[in-house]
Design goal:
Blueprint lengths: L7 H4 L18 H21 L7 H7 L4 H4 L1 H24 L1 H21 L3 H15 L1 H13 L2 H33 L3 H21 L5 H4 L19 H4 L18 H6 L2 H30 L5 H7 L1 H26 L6 H6 L2 H20 L4 H29 L4 H56 L6
Length: 470
């Protein structure tokens, strides 16, 4: 842990947080912040879309490589595992060398992996390349959260985290739609990976041209000019930027790379007691999307494109849920500031129980309506509310970690990726056998029960979290 991790009682007082007391937190205007956040969200979108875009072509891949369904699911499980490992190893680098150079390097590696996937003719090689694909782009999600922490102070941070989370995780929700549309248009599963390669190069071009360095240990509040070429963005040459640069501006202490930093943060009781319950909800939601894609094809006999259209409700729920949660978190923070004993845990987790109950109700409804082969309308509506509530909890946990570790925001939010992705890998890995043994209704009733019990540690952190020293 670095010196910046003061005990929580001191950190919870906004006026003692960081450099923001002696100078404006960021010189960027609101439109500039929105553009930067959009670029980061677009970059993170590549990560979130790359897993579910594979769902519509699962059967085609299984037919091309004569393999069983359980072996075919390994491509999903492997992706989730490396989606969790990648940020743990690479995100701390962004806190050291800067956000910009790491994002650009990862996008190039991601593009190369997609081109190789589009050309592969061996299933074992497809698995290896899917791991590389996940490992290379997954850190973009936690780096995006780190950028929000660089740009926005605590009071309005919830809205920005909600906006970025909603946009980047929308890929998780509409990935099947994109996969179905591309497959339907080109009549080849390889076209999906060519699409991702083009997307990767497009995002690289935008980030290279317009994404400035935001790391506060390098550029302070964006008024200090980067000294290294890899941190320099072409837009800094514009007169409107040049006028605001000030070499005397303060910067945060420069951290050093430590492979164990992510895990040291993760083992802090308030962190794991919050992230594990959130990850259980996210894992059950991932299973929900996986089950829905399979059942719509096998039992409702939907085409690939029609399956993708069903996921639109999930995409809408993703965006609206994250945006609304961000606004609620900002309001909750302002209310907490008025109290004599300020608690960042109450400010960020006070409504977690409401979102959990919505998730539990959605899991039960989804499981039994799909089990009984009802009309798809209630299933589609349920997916909307499940997505809204599930990704709302991810916004809460991400915002909380940025608040707790402002000097290591990318490292801290990589903990969110580790827990949600590894938990999802575990759930998806046993999903087929669970459904075979318990039916779809029984399986999601079990998930609902786990989610309900897992809410208890989060409520404990919300009430008693300030007693822990970080």
């Amino acid at each position: 842990m670095t010196n910046e991790k003061l005990d929580l009682e001191k950190r919870d007082k906004p006026e003692e947080a960081t450099v923001e007391t002696s100078q404006v937190y960021s010189i960027s205007t609101r439109p500039e912040k929105l553009i930067i956040c959009f670029l980061c969200a677009f970059t993170g979108f590549c990560s979130s879309v790359s897993m579910p875009i594979y769902f519509p072509i699962l059967n085609q891949v299984r037919e091309y490589f004569p393999i069983s369904e359980s072996v075919n699911n390994l491509a999903v499980v492997c992706y989730l595992i490396f989606q969790g490992i990648g940020p743990a190893l690479l995100s701390p680098i962004a806190d050291v060398i800067g956000r910009r150079p790491l994002i650009l390097m990862l996008l190039l590696l991601y593009t190369v992996a997609n081109i190789a996937l589009a050309l592969t003719r061996k299933f074992w090689l497809l698995l290896v390349l899917r791991c590389l694909q996940a490992f290379s782009i997954a850190p973009a999600v936690s780096i995006a959260s780190g950028v929000v922490g660089d740009l926005v102070d605590r009071e309005s941070r919830g809205s920005y985290v909600g906006m970025v989370s909603g946009c980047l995780l929308m890929g998780q929700a509409i990935g099947p739609l994109l996969g179905g549309a591309v497959d339907e248009g080109f009549q080849s599963w390889r076209a999906v990976f060519w699409f991702l390669a083009v997307l990767g190069m497009l995002v690289f071009t935008l980030d290279f041209s317009f994404l400035p360095e935001t790391n506060r240990s390098i550029v302070g509040n964006m008024s200090k000019e980067p000294r290294r070429l890899w941190n320099y963005c072409p837009i800094l040459l514009l007169p409107s930027y040049q006028r605001r640069l000030d070499d005397s501006a303060q910067t945060d202490p420069h951290p050093h790379y430590n492979l164990l930093d992510t895990f040291r943060i993760l083992i802090a009781p308030p962190v794991y007691l919050t992230l594990i319950p959130c990850s259980i909800l996210f894992a059950s939601w991932t299973c929900c999307l996986t089950t829905l894609a399979t059942e719509l094809e096998n039992h409702y006999h939907y085409s690939t494109l029609k399956i993708g259209l069903v996921f639109i409700s999930s995409g809408v729920g993703c965006v609206l849920g994250s945006f609304a949660t961000g606004k609620i978190l900002d309001r909750s923070y302002r209310c907490q500031k008025l109290k004599s004993e300020f608690s960042i845990y109450k400010a960020r987790l006070s409504i977690y129980w409401v979102y959990t109950l919505i998730c539990v109700a959605s899991q039960l409804t989804f499981g039994w309506t799909l089990d009984k082969r009802t009309h798809p309308a209630p299933i589609i509506i349920t997916i909307f509310f499940f997505t809204w509530a599930c990704l709302g909890t991810m916004t809460m946990s991400t915002t909380l970690l940025i608040d707790m570790f402002p000097g290591q925001s990318s490292t801290a939010t990589s903990c969110v990726n580790i827990t949600r992705c590894l938990m999802s890998a575990l759930f998806v890995g046993v999903l087929t056998k669970m459904i075979a043994a318990m039916t779809i209704g029984g399986c999601y009733t079990f998930f609902a029960g786990i989610s309900l019990v897992a809410m208890i540690p989060v409520l404990y952190v919300a009430r008693r979290g300030t007693k822990y020293k970080l």
